[in-house]
Amino acid sequence: MDTFIELFDPLSMLLLFLVWGAAGLVFVFGIEFVVRRRLHPDLREQISTSTAVMIQVLAVFYSVLVAFVIVGERNAISDANDNISAEGAALAGLYHDIGGFPQPVRGDIQRAVISYTRSVLNHDFRTADQTGGPSADTTAKLDRLYRTVEAAEPVVGSSKFYTQAISDLSDVTKARRGRIADATDTIPGPLFFLVVLVSVLVLAVATLLNTRERRAHIALLAGLAIVVSFNLALIVALEHPFGGAIAISDQPIRVAVVAAGQH
């Protein structure tokens, strides 16, 4: 499923809606064309009541299922945003906590912080999006940051700022672990398949309705196809929080640390 969804990652939200909307319209009117060719109007009239009941049942199930999926994915994105903000705040705190350390340990730690942060921005986000796991380069940079901070203890001792630096470094690790976990907190393949299946059934059953008025029937099918397609497009966009159309911003980390390191 991930391979399929990754095809849409480069698209903006507008293009994603257009692509899925067009696909939905093609599908529903393709089915409608077959239904008109194969089913006699009298037969459609006879099953109209049953079709209406079936659509109501499917619509209720569909709305609950889609709401459950979208809310779940939205919560995952919210958690990821919180973890990114926490990581940026902890890195900024660590960078400034060591401001009173003597050289060269202060410069060594600050360079290690900047090196780790750049690796997060250049590697960790992309790797988490593609594999659901951490970047080996970023992990190595974090290990180096730990070693650099530990090496400063004989020089600065157990001062209040050193203790706070250790606490901030621990917060960085926790936030990163949570951020990586958020990348894997996506919709399971079978659940996504169920959403698509119910969407297809809703559209297919709707083509069986006999509204007697052709233009009204076309308008109803088109509106239903667009709504269903846009819901699927939104689910696809939310599925990849680190690289999709609704990608999480890395601004908290970039502003908090990279900007500080340039001064």
Beta-strand content bin: under 5%
Query: Percentage of helical residues?
Result: over 70%
Which overall shape is indicated by the principal axes computed on the Cα atoms? rod-shaped
**Number of DSSP helical runs:** 11
What's the helix-strand series? HHHHHHHHHHH
Structural class: mainly alpha
Please, what is the average pLDDT?
Answer: 86
Number of strands: 0
CA-based gyration radius: 26 Å
Query: Could you give the distance between the termini?
Result: 44 Å
Description of the molecule:
- With 263 residues, the chain is an all-alpha fold.
- It has eleven helices and no strands.
- It has helices at 2-6, 13-38, 41-46, 48-97, 105-131, 136-151, 153-156, 160-184, 189-206, 214-239, 251-261.
- Helix 2 crosses helix 10 (214-239), helix 4 runs antiparallel to helix 8 (160-184) and helix 4 (48-97) packs antiparallel against helix 9 (189-206).
- The mean pLDDT is 86.
